[in-house]
Inverse folding.
């Protein structure tokens, strides 16, 4: 094997390993962490075997320094493993999004959010980011701080007419490494924490987060619109009048909150609500479960394409108007195990309607 062919082979193997590891890293969930570790080990072993074979083939023609190439790949694997460990630490024991531990990072103020050294107050929040873990919560004062391990995701801040706007600078792609970092978020740590004083009422909070987890905690919000492409969204101990939450590849969790009306849409992930009061809610989950535990709901409609629907701990089930249909699954309502459909008449204003294409329905 000549030197040119060998170098091309090493380049292809390197790109394959980086992209493969990145795709697995994108799933992010701690319950899949052991699978990611196995994949990395297999990729590392395959890379080492391929390099040893290539070295033996090229030994008779050229002197090739395989050690430098392999050490670079080892360093890349180590960076991704460190990033995964970091992601796991930013989750609680239940796998939900935990608060960012700011003591672990050198958080700096976001440019454009201060005047004369003090943060500018705001009433609304509008965020469009490509790859950030974001916490929005109460604190001692208004603040917007962030940490980046690589400046390719540099955020831009502005406060105008009472609204905090956060975007990211356009990033020019000069190398293959730049392309992979931008589109697969390889080994990049990006954290942001936004705080408002306790008792502050937020008018509108809107975020679009490409590849990162978002936690909204301890806030009172009139309208919350959250769209995540590849990451989890958690709402904790919040009061929200109107909620519109969508997640393409990740979980949506709502805990200990009060919501007026909500539309919650998940393409690939689970939806979980616990200890939450919600007047009217509509769920749409294409691939994942919908679970409600100890929630009080007045009007509920759920469409689950491939997954189970489970609602437990809801009081006065006998008072609800109920309409359940499961095309390919079982239904259990109270202590009764039923076939593919169930209906019950109840009081005005109390309604539970569930449609499941491939999964079970349990309401107890």
């Amino acid at each position: 094997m000549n030197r040119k062919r060998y170098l091309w082979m090493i380049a292809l193997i390197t790109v394959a390993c980086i992209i493969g590891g990145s795709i697995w890293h994108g799933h992010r969930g701690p319950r899949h962490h052991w699978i990611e570790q196995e994949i990395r080990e297999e990729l590392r072993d395959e890379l080492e075997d391929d390099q040893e074979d290539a070295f033996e083939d090229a030994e008779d023609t050229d002197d090739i320094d395989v050690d430098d190439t392999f050490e670079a790949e080892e360093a890349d694997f180590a960076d991704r493993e460190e990033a995964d460990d970091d992601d796991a630490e930013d989750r609680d024991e239940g796998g939900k999004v935990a608060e960012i531990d700011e003591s672990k990072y050198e958080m700096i103020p976001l440019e454009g959010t201060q005047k004369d050294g003090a943060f500018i107050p705001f009433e609304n929040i509008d965020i469009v980011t490509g790859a950030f873990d974001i916490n929005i919560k109460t604190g001692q004062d208004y603040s917007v701080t962030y940490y980046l391990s690589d400046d390719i995701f540099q955020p831009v801040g502005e406060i105008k007419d009472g609204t905090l706007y956060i975007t990211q600078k356009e990033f020019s792609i000069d190398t293959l490494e730049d392309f992979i970092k931008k589109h697969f978020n390889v080994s990049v740590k990006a954290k942001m924490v936004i705080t408002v004083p306790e008792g502050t009422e937020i008018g509108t909070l809107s975020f679009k987060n490409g590849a990162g987890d978002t936690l909204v905690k301890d806030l009172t919000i009139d309208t919350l619109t959250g769209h995540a492409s590849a990451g989890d969204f958690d709402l904790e101990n919040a009061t929200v009048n109107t909620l519109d939450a969508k997640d393409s590849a990740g979980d949506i969790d709502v805990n200990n909150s009060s919501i007026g009306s909500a539309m919650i849409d998940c393409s690939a992930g689970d939806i979980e609500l616990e200890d939450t009061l919600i007047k009217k809610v509509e769920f749409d989950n294409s691939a994942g479960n919908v679970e409600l535990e100890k929630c009080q709901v007045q009007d509920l409609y759920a469409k689950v394409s491939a997954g189970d629907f489970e609602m437990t701990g809801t009081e006065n089930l006998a008072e609800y108007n109920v309409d359940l249909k499961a095309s390919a699954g079982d239904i259990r309502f109270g202590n009764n195990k039923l076939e593919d459909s169930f209906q019950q008449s109840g009081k005005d204003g109390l309604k539970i309607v569930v449609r499941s294409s491939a999964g079970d329905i349990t309401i107890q």
